[in-house]
Description:
The complex is a heterodimer of chains A (335) and B (415). With 335 residues, chain A is mainly alpha-helical. Helix content of chain A is 74%, strand content 1%. In chain A, strands 1-2 form a two-stranded antiparallel ribbon. The termini of chain A are far apart. Chain B starts with a helix and ends in a 24-residue tail after the last helix. In chain B, helix 1 runs antiparallel to helix 4, helix 1 packs across helix 14 (323-338) and helix 6 packs antiparallel against helix 7 (211-237). Chain B is mostly helical.
Amino acid sequence: MELAWYALLGLFFAAYLVLGGYDYGVGLMLARRGPAPGSRATLTALGPFFLGNEVWLVAAVGILFGAFPRLEGELLSGFYPVVLAALTGVVLVTAGVQLRSRPASATARARWDRVVVAGCVLAALGWGALLAGLLQGVPLSGDGHVVGAGHLATPFVAAAGLALLALVAVHGATFLTLRLPAAEAPALARLASGLVPAALVAVAAATVLGLLSDRVRAAVARPAAAVLLPLVLVAALLAARAALRRGRAGTAFAATATALALPAPLIGAALWPRILVSTTDPAASLTVAEAAASRPTLALLGWLALPLLPALLGFQAMCWWVFRGRIDGRAPVYW
Amino acid sequence: MDPLLLARLQFATTTSIHFLFVAVTLGLVTLLVGLQTAGYLTGKPVYERLTRFWGQLYVINYVLGIATGIVMEFQFGLNWSGLSRYVGNVFGAPLAIETLVAFFLESTFLGMWIFGWHRLRRGVHLALLWGVAITAYASAFWIMVANAWLQNPVGYEVRDGVAHLTDFGALLTNPTFGMAFGHVVSAGLVTGGLLMAAVSAWHLLRRTPDYALFRTSLRLGLVTAALSVSMLQGFGFAQFGPVAQLQPTKFGGGPDRDALVTDWTARFGPGDWEPPVLSNVGLGFMILIGFTLGAVWLLLPLLWRDWIIRLKVPLWLILLGLPLPFVAMLLGWIAREVGRQPWAAYGLLPTAQAVSPVSPGLMLTSLIGFSLLLGALAVTNWVLLARHAARGAHDPALGRPPAPDSDAHHQPVFV
């Protein structure tokens, strides 16, 4: 039963990285100072999906709290600075995107654009750093607490943050290629495929630093999964680039979505059966089973939440279906 | 500095800001459901215009509810890891249910509702708003279940120092839950109703266009506020019984309180087991405000022949009264939560044991950073709300029809 909930947690966080990932990638595009597409068109592309995307994070943390309470406490407090950064980013993006077009003045809107960009950078860096921090283990003491926050100050964590930032940028640009009017697609495809090399460099740098890190090598229980991760990322990025060059935005988006979906499950698999690996006291490591809530709680959540899962996914799918396709003259404009 | 104090200050700040916005959300969404349903059934355009105008204010207000809500959710893990460690098996369940069953759907529905004007069939679009409202109430329900459990832990047993769930039904029948839920929901309705009445009153006083439209929303807001203020008072006073019985240390002294403090001293060691002296001072003021708001009933007879508008003074009174429900809400909230101290879960987990072992420097950074961030966002949001309220209902961005001749436009029309 713990495994099922662990998989569900992974699914929700992965879905957040894919869906929230293109929110942040699209948000980063507001930093561009070009003629077309303007900020308003960029946000209109995001339009109806934005609220439904961000909420995967809230649900993932809800599952974390309900099904893995011990992990929730230690993970969030043990990764305090990077969670703070990610959270600040999420708040800035949430408020910025929704409020950006409420004032009528161009200067106020430009200011909100900068707020959104800053938020997207912080969120991507923060979540990338958190994932890397899991992979390199934490100083977990015998009483089960993470000691200090200095364990996060490593080159690997920094590189992984930058790698996620580059990945969401590619993902967001690819989403816009798929979603904005066809006339603008070629320019956006060039932008997206131009970002791919930067993402490849960032992923390569994070991989090398991870391989060089004693902590990562010690924490990873299944090297196969950990090695698979950078390979899949590189393959997905190359596939996206090839598809963008051939003008196949849908295929490219599927490739970048895969790139963002896989880190969460592969990191979970690489550390399994542990989730918080102690760098100081191997016996203090926290396994998934230990982190899980007790049986009655998991059973209750299963009875209450699982029957609703099809409804949750169904309404999300309804949103994607209703607002599918490129935006045109009939697209509702609000953000 | 003391991490406990910092963590408590941060929780108080975030929750207070959260409360100011979600109460409006809860009240306005109920009124919006009424307006859009009326529009659907009667086909009168005035209801669509009302829905767009109030819907836009609702959506702007909603932003801060989400932003502060996310920070609250993370704060449990960031600052209160002891809460998840010792009572997470029980306390985490309603919160997880809230995010999955309620908030997840609420946000998905709202996204479709905002962008679904003129795109979805009217019935589907209306159903989405109903979905938003129902899930908003479900959210409040589960959050209050969780909060009521902290007030009066039930349905658990402690094994190896950790609480385990034994009876989920007990969480739902918790005596500290039902009346408090009714109280909070009524407070949201009073706030939403009074906000609607006050904004309408401002327009009627300024003699802006759309007299008929704001006359309608004035009446709707006022009647809603009046009906719900009576419920608010009823649910409020109904809580004194259970609270006095289950939380004797909360509101005042007596033998029960002394006996409980003696018991805690025996079980948890010597310490200050009573809430701060000033914790229930605010309660008196809240009750005073509650009675003052009850005077809304006196304004209802003036709806006859629009005397309320013709006399003008009542409109001014409504405008002046707008801050009252917000102040009362914060005072009531502080009385409920500070009165629970020094416990995170009453009689089970002391607050000091629930706080994360995080360095005070980090916690101070977080407190200052998020207080400034959320405070600035709250003020900005209120300014935007006030501007949009003052702009009137002639053409809100929400639900603006797309360009009539869509074939000629391949680009959306941006205004």
